[in-house]
Amino acid sequence: MTENAPLLEMKGIRKDFFGNQVLTDIHLSLKEGEVLGLVGENGAGKSTLMKILFGMNVIAETGGYDGDILLNGEKVRFGSPFDALAAGIGMVHQEFSLIPGFTATENILLNREPRHKAGVVSQIFGERLETLDRKKMQDQAASAIQRMGIRIDPDMVISDMPIGHKQFTEIARELSKDQLRLLILDEPTAVLTEKEAEALLASIRGMAASGIAVIFITHRLQEILDVCDRVLVMRDGYAVQDVPAARTSIPEITKWMVGRSVDTSASARADEQLETGRVIMSISRLWVDMAGETVRDVSLDVYEGEILGIGGLAGQGKLGIPNGVMGLYEAGGSVTFDEKPIPLNQPRSCLDASIAFVSEDRRGVGLLLDESLEWNIAFPPMQIQNKFLKSYLGGLIKWRDEAAIREVTSRYVDSLQIRCTGTRQKAKELSGGNQQKVCLAKAFALEPRFLFVSEPTRGIDVGAKELVLNALKRFNREHGVTVVMISSELEELRQICDRIAIVSGGRIAGILPATRSSEEFGMLMVSQVK
Amino acid sequence: MSTKNQTASFGAKLGRLARDNSVPIMFILICAVCIPLAGFSGGYLLNEIITRMGRNTFLILSLLIPIMAGMGLNFGMTLGAMAGEIALILTADWQIWGIPGVVLSMILSIPLSVGLGLLCGKILNMAKGREMVTSYIVSYFINGVYQLVVLYMMGSIIPIAHSSIKLPRGYGIRNTVSLLNMRQCIDNLWAIRVGGVKIPVLTFLIIALLCLVILWFRKTKLGQDMRAVGQDMNVARDAGVDVERTRIISIVISTVLAGFGMILYLQNMGNISTYSSHSQIGMFCIAALLVGGASVDKASIGNVFLGVSLFHLMFIVAPAAGAKITGDSMIGEYFRVFVSYGVITVALVMYETKKRRAKASLGRQLELEQKGADK
Fold it and tell me: How far apart are CA A367 and CA A358, in angstroms?
């Protein structure tokens, strides 16, 4: 068998999104029954690589990819996930793809239900009017569950299931496909309890023994060492290491994952100076119900005048913290600002207390896309602080002060180097980076005492990134504004923050000064807070 | 102790039952108050309800399949009703009466219904998530087209021979088309009388057959696909189900059935109000279904029967009760129109609150988890 071509080979895979290189010369090969662990920070390119392999539409829509994929030595190029499925590749995504009101059996055999032989009606009107063979469905689902080796109730409706069982239903669905030869599991253990995760690992070993190759993506490195034959570490779109799992260790993998050659221009002021600073915002026992970013029991103090970074992997809850405090998602717990309590679930109360928020949802929450830059920047101060308004008749009539609005807008256009044709240009016509600068300008124009910035550099190019980060830093230093910045990119947090809190599993895993090494933060990221 | 627990859980169950069925319960209460006030005899009421059941049930059943496919309450059934009316006008003009006339009308209505259903389905696919209001507006639009056809094209382009149907000016159809020779031909065939109550056996057999077809349909591959599409379009699409096509098919089935239902309805009435028969039918059918305890995303055959009996019971007793109380018969008339619109509003609001409550409970669960961790 070893002489044969490997089951899967990916050669020289390159991919860019509109000039932004996200994958560079990735090589990967996989034999039958082999388990490959794929690790890397967010944005390292794991998901993109898997999307290419699975033929997801988003790849073709953004200009395809370079390089070759070979299955059993034959070159393939999948136009859609259905082609990949037909070729024997199965994928379990992070988001569940299940029908909530169907039983496990119905979901496992979704759109592949066995049917009774054609009757008169179906011969006239087509095969979709054949009735389902429930008995056979039961049998097939039961045998798929058997193959998985984890017991779930085939008759339970998905919406009644604990989240782990939903995950297992998805895996059983892939296993019920006869042609399955390669299974991609994208962070399957993220939603599982420890017991369930152990059962899943045992199940992966079982699959491998029966000849199915598995690509296993996870942030829990111990699992990689437990179950994988080989580990592929990715960083910034490169495959940096490809080693047998037996010959490596967690600290080593962590180092490959986060360790960048560039040493950071960490800016932190002396720790002790900050520790004695005044607490300006105190969050205690916060929970936030934000889909995919659930926050559980977070307590956190923010000191006046500092830049606090909140980092962590995607989906761990870091985005939930600002959205919960600002009242955009349902939240509980208590928040005090400047020694006064801030009522939750009321965005206005935060704004009135001089707290501003730059949302990660730039196009949805951040901007009035169809309005001009002037409007975008002046709107919040007008609404919240009655700025840029001229009063007549003792305040009975208020008119916009167009001159003042134009003045302040062009000031921010200059200072943030927003590239636009004029202050009257519509926000939607700007590029992503410039839109982000407008979002910052909006927040700056409020002249807040406290600023939440969520993912300020997501999806913008390197030059714009530098500008945005510098603007934040300047805003903090020159105006004494306390900034809390949430970002998935550790290096960028280390560049401008004083302290960095790492969120994992919806909880704060630890808070360290930004001067500490990347490895230490990496360990916190992959630690699961109990 | 255990009995106490049992009664407690029984009470909780009863509470949940009451909350889930609040709309039917509300109507039962209204009827319970109105029946003695109206002062009708039981025999009369039963007779009326049986008649109206035979008249309306088929139409209401046509609403079930789009609900299964997640397209909500389909006001597009009005399109089928119009197709049925056009077919009936033509058969009436050709002087084909009795059961052959009914069957021919049904056959004639099929191509019209399918065409209108395809159009409606295509439009609804462009307005996913807003099917109800879109289908409502589409029904107004097609009503305009219907009037163009019936008022100007019939007699001028489409040949209409009989002057009893035509307007005196030579084209267009009269306000009322008599179906006297067709009147209750299905209801009266095999009809039996039980203690003064006339039971239209054949009509009920047809309705029963449709119920069986719907039950069978749920078990087919297409039915399963519709349920999947109805619950999550994206998941169904990822699994390879042709979502758009499935949705269009569900609307077409509904329009065709509504066409048949309208023909059954009008053969019972014995005449067509050419310009108004169809305009209220969608509203009343949907109100009846909601009164039976259905919601925008869930409806069963049981809801249809409960709804049709309760809604029409109220229709019969409310005007009489209103007249008794106020001495003015208009009040009762007003009341029943008010109630049919009101019930749709209330049912929709309750559906929204239920969704909100489900969402809020997620947050509460988080809070409880946190408290649980403290212990």
Answer: 10
In this structure, the answer to whether residues A350 and A456 fall within a common structural domain is yes
Subunit contact B224:A285, Cβ cutoff 8 A = no
Residues A108 and A173 in one domain: yes
Asked if A313 and A435 sit in the same domain, the reply is no
Give CA–CA dist A484/A450, Å, rounded. 8
Task: Give whole-number Cα distances, B154 to B4, B90, B91, B105, in Å.
Answer: 72, 9, 13, 17
Say if A337 falls within a structural domain. Answer: yes
Task: Find residue A239's DSSP bridge partners.
Answer: A234
Q: Which amino acid is at B371?
A: K
**Does the beta carbon of A127 lie under 8 angstroms from any beta carbon of chain B?**
yes
- How far is it, in rounded angstroms, from Cα A340 to Cα A351? 14
CATH of the domain at B144: 1.10.3470
Is the Cβ of A57 closer than 8 Å to some Cβ of chain B? no
Q: Locate the chain B residue with the closest alpha carbon to A100.
A: B231
Instruction: Tell me if B367 and A297 make a contact (CB, 8 A cut-off).
Output: no
**Global pTM value:** 0.76
How many structural domains comprise chain B?
Answer: 1
Write out chain B residues lying below 8 Å of A296, CB-based: 366, 369-370
CB contact under 8 A, B360 and A330: yes
By CB atoms closer than 10 A (0-12, 13-18, 19+), residue B242 is: middle
> Mind listing the pLDDT tens digit of every residue in chain A (530 residues)?
444 678 999 988 988 876 677 888 899 889 999 999 998 876 678 888 988 999 888 888 878 888 999 998 889 988 888 899 889 999 998 778 899 889 999 999 999 899 887 777 777 788 888 888 999 999 999 999 998 888 889 999 988 887 788 889 999 999 999 889 999 998 887 767 778 888 899 999 999 998 999 999 887 788 888 899 999 998 888 888 899 988 888 888 888 877 654 344 444 444 444 455 788 899 988 988 887 788 888 888 999 888 999 988 777 888 889 999 988 888 888 899 888 898 888 888 888 888 999 988 877 778 888 888 888 888 888 888 878 888 887 777 888 888 888 888 998 888 888 888 888 888 887 777 788 888 889 888 888 999 999 988 876 766 677 788 888 888 888 888 999 999 888 888 888 898 999 998 888 888 988 888 877 888 888 776 54
Q: Please, are residues B233 and B243 in contact by the beta-carbon 8 Å criterion?
A: yes
Residue B12 lies in a domain: no
Q: How many CB atoms lie within 10 A of CB B260?
A: 25
Domain CATH number, residue A345 = 3.40.50.300
Tokens representing residue A357 in the block: 């928020």
A400 vs A407: CA distance, rounded Å: 13
Interface confidence, given as ipTM, is: 0.82
Structural domain including A429 reads: 361-447
**Same domain, yes or no: A220 and A136:** no
**Distance between A281 CA and the closest CA of chain B, angstroms:** 22
Domain assignment present for residue B373? The answer is: no
Point out the residue among B220, B238, B367 whose CB comes nearest to the CB of A128: B220
User: Is residue A11 included in any domain, yes or no?
Assistant: no
Q: Indicate whether A428 and A503 sit together in one domain.
A: no
| Domain with B257 in it | 49-301
Does B197 reside within a domain?
yes
